[in-house]
From TrEMBL:
It comes from the Bacteria. InterPro entries: Homeodomain-like_sf, Transposase_8, WH-like_DNA-bd_sf. Pfam families: HTH_Tnp_1. This is Transposase. It comes from Candidatus Chlorohelix allophototropha.
Length: 116
C-alpha cells in the first residue's frame, strides 16, 4: 500500500529554503529535522534561486507603477485645491452680495425669516 503524497505550503517551503541558504546546518540535517527528503530540498532551493531574479525585476516595475500613481494623485490633488479656491471666492462674493442687499448671513432661529 502506498502512502499519500505530502503537500507543503509555500510558507513552509520558503522557511526551509531560508534555512538552507543560511548554511548553518547541512542539507541532510535540515531534511531529517523537517521530515523532507534531501532531493526535494535541493529542488526547492534551485526553484527559489531560479525565480529570484524575476522578483527583483518585478520590483522595478512596481516602483514605476507606484510613481505613476503618485503623479496622478498629485495632479488630482492640485485640481481639487483649485476647485476649493474657486468655490471659496464664489462663496465670499455671494456673502458680500447678500450683505449689500441687507440679508443676514448668520443662521437664523427657527421661525425667523432671516431679514433684518
Amino acid at each position: 500500500m502506498t502512502t499519500p503524497r505530502k503537500k507543503y505550503s509555500p510558507t513552509f517551503k520558503a522557511q526551509i529554503v531560508q534555512e538552507l541558504l543560511k548554511e548553518e546546518q547541512t542539507l541532510t540535517q535540515i531534511a531529517s529535522k523537517h521530515g523532507v527528503h534531501p532531493t526535494q530540498l535541493r529542488r526547492w532551493r534551485e526553484a527559489a534561486l531560479t525565480a529570484m531574479p524575476a522578483n527583483f525585476a518585478d520590483e522595478a516595475q512596481f516602483q514605476k507603477h507606484l510613481a505613476a500613481i503618485n503623479e496622478q494623485h498629485d495632479k488630482e490633488k492640485e485640481k481639487l485645491y483649485a476647485e476649493i479656491g474657486k468655490l471659496t471666492i464664489q462663496l465670499n462674493w455671494l456673502k458680500k452680495k447678500v450683505e449689500s442687499v441687507g440679508i443676514s448671513t448668520e443662521p437664523s432661529e427657527p421661525g425667523r425669516t432671516g431679514r433684518k
